[in-house]
Amino acid sequence: MATLSSTSALFFSFTLLYFNLISASFTPLTHYLINCGSPQPTTVDFDHRHFTGDVSSSFLSSTGTISLTDQYPSPKSSPIYHTTRVFTRPSKYKFVIKNPGAHLVRLHFRRLKSDFDFSNAKFHVLANEFVLFNSLSMEMGQDFEIVKDYVIGVDSDVLVITFVPSDKSNFGFVNAIEVISAPNDLIADVAQYVKFDKNEQIHGLLKNGFETMYRVNVGGWKVTPFNDSLWRTWVTDDEYLKSNDGLSKVHFGGRINYQDGGASREVGPDNVYNSARVIRSSGNSIPELNMTWTFPVIGGYKYLVRMHFCDIASVARGMLYFNVYVNNNLAYENLDLTEVTNRLLASPFYADFVVDGDSSGVLTLSVGPSNMSLPRAVDAILNGVEILKINNSVGSFDGEICAHAVLKSWKRGNGNVVYPMLAAVFLLLIAFVIMHRRRAGVTDSVAWGRLPMEIPEVNLKYGNQLSSNKL
Ligand SMILES: *[C@@H]1O[C@H](CO)[C@@H](O)[C@H](O)[C@H]1NC(C)=O
Ligand SMILES: *[C@@H]1O[C@H](CO)[C@@H](O)[C@H](O)[C@H]1NC(C)=O
Ligand SMILES: *[C@@H]1O[C@H](CO)[C@@H](O)[C@H](O)[C@H]1NC(C)=O
Ligand SMILES: *[C@@H]1O[C@H](CO)[C@@H](O)[C@H](O)[C@H]1NC(C)=O
């Protein structure tokens, strides 16, 4: 393990040759923001983004869908949660992709107050060959929002997101969809694979998909999509920090020195790098202490752990050395932030580790003083953490069933010929119930955007596509 430091330091320091301060902002080539179930052409969310409605849009190709509108929406919830599209049979959104490569896919869910029994919402969601999830527990109370956040490699010119009800008595739904092309430097193809008996470089990460489990701003405030150039949310770390004893928080009011070849603003925004937690030695001895965070994870998957560092706390260069542990294994010995940032303070750096989620059900991250740590200095720092689940060998983030089998199971279980009829009967029944209740003077929280719609399958390659939504 002791030999690790010099070789991996080389690997982690990227190309240090052409460091320049950079400030160009990122504009995605492909950028779809869809407010599902909305008849309005545009809806502006709390982060000032424009979402397009999907009623009679060219993305949605399905017949068995219903759009619902919340008549009495909570003013505290973003307008993208005020409408929903419901799927009574497999339904697809097709997005034309301008440049193959990694794409951010974000799905928003919140059950509406309605006559719909959302306990019957049980469905699979696929994105091209990936199974994003198999069902979502929306039963536990209706007033919260669920955002599922992924990075998916797209190697064709179309990304198809498919909603498949678990069986014919179930339905699927979604409130909003984001599909955004990722900057090239967001996911690197290599990382260090850390286990108790090994710490080695692995390649080929880019062929995987990733689901965000945790995105944490250590020692700082919550960061909302408004302040993140990829519209991500970073939560605070208090909940995950094992103990606060002997640690302190740091905030930095100066400018973060983003450099070419280092972590970009898309990798981590200013608000993540300008706050941190640190271990500091005030006297002549170095604290015997680690800062430790624990994150619940599900076993049977690999996780990509990205740790964000930015030395905003040292008074001079070359004074901060520390060790990084992943699941109590030494992942990086004597990390010297001065060296990996081309001798610039307040310059961001990140390290990627791949770990196996084990049966313990937790992933543990620590940073602490190393043999080279100095007294009267900062002796460990962490600014941010991301933990991304990597899909399993069948391309799933949720179980052992592949996308192909999910689609086949619907056909087998429901019979190709009957399901459109069943769906029609289902829709009529609901319409009847609602009209009946209206007449009976029952106030309804559901408005019908449109009853069963026929949307012709269009070939999106030539059909009209949504123009980019720029902020
Ligand atoms: C964005 O960041 C600035 C600076 O940290 C902060 O003052 C502001 O409240 C943030 N805005 C939102 C919407 O989070
Ligand atoms: C810090 O954590 C590592 C890994 O679990 C452990 O080996 C080391 O003893 C810890 N140091 C202290 C001072 O607790
Ligand atoms: C650092 O100290 C540990 C014991 O605390 C020792 O096992 C290890 O070899 C030392 N590493 C170096 C590079 O001296
Ligand atoms: C994730 O899915 C891709 C595409 O199906 C596959 O090539 C890759 O091997 C999967 N990852 C793992 C860790 O099995």
UniProtKB/TrEMBL annotation:
Membrane topology: Single-pass type I membrane protein
Protein's cellular compartments: Membrane
Annotated signal sequence range: 1-24
TM regions (residue ranges): 417-435
Keyword Kinase (UniProt): yes
GO molecular function: ATP binding; protein serine/threonine kinase activity; transmembrane receptor protein tyrosine kinase activity
Protein name per its UniProtKB record: Malectin-like domain-containing protein
InterPro entries the UniProt entry points to: ANXUR1/2-like (IPR045272), Malectin-like_Carb-bd_dom (IPR024788)
Domain Malectin-like: 34-389
Top-level division of the source organism's lineage: Eukaryota
GO-annotated cellular components: membrane
Gene3D superfamilies documented for this protein: Galactose-binding lectin
UniProt entry tagged with the keyword Glycosyltransferase: no
Keyword terms of this UniProt record: ATP-binding, Glycoprotein, Kinase, Membrane, Nucleotide-binding, Serine/threonine-protein kinase, Signal, Transferase, Transmembrane, Transmembrane helix
